[in-house]
């Protein structure tokens, strides 16, 4: 073989070796491709503001239902609010409703002032609890103004509004309106302090709100 033939044969051997090496290389494995997804859920990479708001409202609504459920099974004074029902929730307010029954009224057959005051305390605290899960709170001051009587059988819409929630305190107000004509029955204010909990006791706490 002359020099040219030897060179051509050498190049052919090199090309064959390169082809063999490429065929033996291990390709990277995408582990997610090995997981079957029979019904993939399409996700919008650019959700609208309405989509985001609706998703948050569902979260707040679920939290409201959780705290109301605890009231319905409460073994302590909070039982005075066991008849309230969740309506709606956001990061700044909750709406619940309650039908006035015999257990809620005074000797005149209208909603007892003490029952209203207790609901001012309990409902506004739950409005804060929607965004402050299981954080103990203590009342610093509470006031109620009464405008109209509510009779047995009337359903009230009760809106608890969070005016401001800081690091140590929350400021709230509340309105009681008759559902049939939206007449203002009572209005209140309630300010609460967040109670600091030692780190070593956090895991042993029972659900608070």
Automatic annotation (TrEMBL):
Localization per Swiss-Prot or TrEMBL: Cytoplasm, Cytoskeleton, Spindle; Cytoplasm, Cytosol; Mitochondrion; Nucleus
Domain of life: Eukaryota
Key words, A-Z: Acetylation, Cytoplasm, Cytoskeleton, Hydrolase, Lipid metabolism, Mitochondrion, Nucleus
Catalysed conversion reaction: dodecanoyl-CoA + H2O = dodecanoate + CoA + H(+); a fatty acyl-CoA + H2O = a fatty acid + CoA + H(+); octanoyl-CoA + H2O = octanoate + CoA + H(+); hexanoyl-CoA + H2O = hexanoate + CoA + H(+)
A Pfam family annotated for this UniProt entry: 4HBT
One GO BP: lipid metabolic process
InterPro entries assigned: ACOT13, HotDog_dom_sf, PAAI_dom, Thioestr_dom
Subunit structure: Homotetramer. Interacts with PCTP.
Similarity remark: Belongs to the thioesterase PaaI family.
Protein name stated in the entry: Acyl-coenzyme A thioesterase 13
């Amino acid at each position: 073989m002359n020099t040219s033939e030897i060179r051509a044969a050498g190049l052919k051997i090199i090309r064959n070796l390169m082809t063999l090496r490429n065929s033996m290389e291990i390709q990277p494995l995408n582990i997610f491709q090995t997981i079957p997804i029979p019904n993939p859920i399409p996700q919008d990479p650019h959700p609208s503001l309405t989509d985001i708001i609706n998703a948050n409202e569902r979260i707040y609504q679920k939290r409201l239902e959780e705290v109301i459920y605890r009231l319905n099974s409460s073994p302590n004074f909070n039982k005075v609010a066991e008849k309230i029902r969740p309506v709606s929730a956001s990061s700044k307010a909750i709406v619940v409703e309650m039908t006035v029954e015999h257990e809620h009224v005074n000797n005149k057959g209208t909603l007892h002032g003490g029952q209203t005051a207790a609901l001012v305390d309990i409902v506004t605290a739950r409005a804060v609890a929607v965004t402050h899960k299981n954080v103990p709170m203590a009342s610093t001051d509470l006031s109620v103004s009464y405008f109209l009587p509510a009779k047995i059988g009337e359903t009230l819409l009760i809106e608890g509004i969070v005016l401001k929630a800081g690091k140590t305190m929350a400021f709230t107000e509340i309105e009681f309106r008759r559902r049939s004509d939206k007449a203002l029955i009572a209005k209140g204010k309630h300010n609460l302090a967040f109670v600091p909990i030692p780190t070593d006791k956090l895991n042993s706490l029972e659900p608070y709100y």
